[in-house]
Amino acid sequence: MNSNTVLNIVGISGSLRNKSSNTNLLRALSELAPENMNISIFDGIGDLPHFNPELDDEPPASVTCFREQMKEADGLIISTPEYAHGVPGVLKNALDWLVPSGELYEKPLVVLSASPLETGGEKAHDSILLTLRMMTARITPGGSLCIPFINKKINAEYEVTDELLREKLKAMLIQLGQTAESK
Ligand SMILES: Cc1cc2nc3c(=O)[nH]c(=O)nc-3n(C[C@H](O)[C@H](O)[C@H](O)COP(=O)(O)O)c2cc1C
């Protein structure tokens, strides 16, 4: 890949809430990203139907759009809450739609889980990593981070206020960019 190319990085939040801390975290990443990286957020996973392999003969438009955006992305950032010690159903459903079509095959990817609790959503984090590895996504070195007490680390202007977290996220984005460029 040409070093002057702007990388198309797409964020997916596992939360549909308007005030989601995970979505806000994705919004905050643009400020922390290297110059050659554009981060957009795909906000359509709530529009996907429940996964049913029989629908795949003629996939609904929402599925086709989702798959196209995943295919075009140079890299992905998934940020998810934990619901009842698992991955939110809406996010697992979205990933299931990508299994037969294979857009995540070797896709450079980082995974965040953010929670107001001390655990940082670690159970959902472990679970989604299992799924993504099965899908052969390329999780970048150091590209996996559980973030506890997220409510104290991000402000209303979508800025990460915790200095240590800022540095970790910056390093993660640089690594994601390098992995995407090496493809
Ligand atoms: C139904 C439900 C189940 C939850 N289960 C967990 C859980 O198992 N672990 C956890 O850390 N937080 C849990 N939470 C709290 C979420 O982490 C919290 O609501 C968080 O803000 C959701 O992420 P969001 O801000 O991106 O929407 C749960 C919340 C809801 C509504």
TrEMBL record:
Domain NADPH-dependent FMN reductase-like: residue ranges: 8-149
Pfam families per record: FMN_red (PF03358)
InterPro entries reported in the protein's UniProt record: Flavoprotein-like_sf, FMN_Rdtase-like_dom, NAD(P)H-dep_reductase
Family, as annotated: Belongs to the azoreductase type 2 family.
Name listed for the protein in its UniProt record: NAD(P)H-dependent oxidoreductase
Organism: Paenibacillus dokdonensis
